[in-house]
């Protein structure tokens, strides 16, 4: 992920997480690193209470849950340019691949045998 997207993610985590007075200097330095056009769009989304940048999981925008065109995902994978979701307008980034935890192997517990249903006695004719 390029530096611009990393800065946006850090900025959002600081601002959405309830910025403390100690974080104000870090927020200001991050805002200086981001171009004004991108920051303006990001601020408009944040003013409406929406996240400005969201991850893409399984080719789906996690902001609006809509499937993204393969070209958008390919551009994100190549890390060529920043991308916006066509549906919700949020900036997109690919999450860093995190290793999946190993599945737990549990010992099988002994089960009780199932009871068989009893059949009613046949009626005498």
Overview of this protein structure:
- The protein has 125 residues and is α+β, with helices and mostly antiparallel strands.
- The protein has a single domain, classed as Helix Hairpins (Orthogonal Bundle).
- 36% of the residues lie in helices and 10% in strands.
- It has a 4-stranded mixed beta sheet.
- Strand 1 and strand 2 form a beta hairpin.
- Helix 1 runs antiparallel to helix 2.
- The longest helix is centred in the first third of the chain and has 14 residues.
- The chain is elongated.
- The N and C termini lie far apart (82 Å).
- The model has no long low-confidence stretch (mean pLDDT 83).
Question: What keywords describe this structure?
Answer:
4 helices, alpha+beta, four-stranded mixed sheet, about 35% helix, single chain, about 120 residues, Helix Hairpins
- Give the CA-CA distance, first to last residue: 82 Å
Q: What's the SSE pattern?
A: HHHEEHEE
* Overall residue-averaged pLDDT value: 83
- The total of beta strands comes to 4
- Structural class by SSE content: alpha+beta
Percentage beta strand: 5-15%
Number of domains: 1
Q: Note the total helix count.
A: 4
Which descriptor suits the 3D outline?
Answer: elongated
CATH structural class:
Mainly Alpha
In short:
By secondary structure, the chain is an alpha+beta fold.
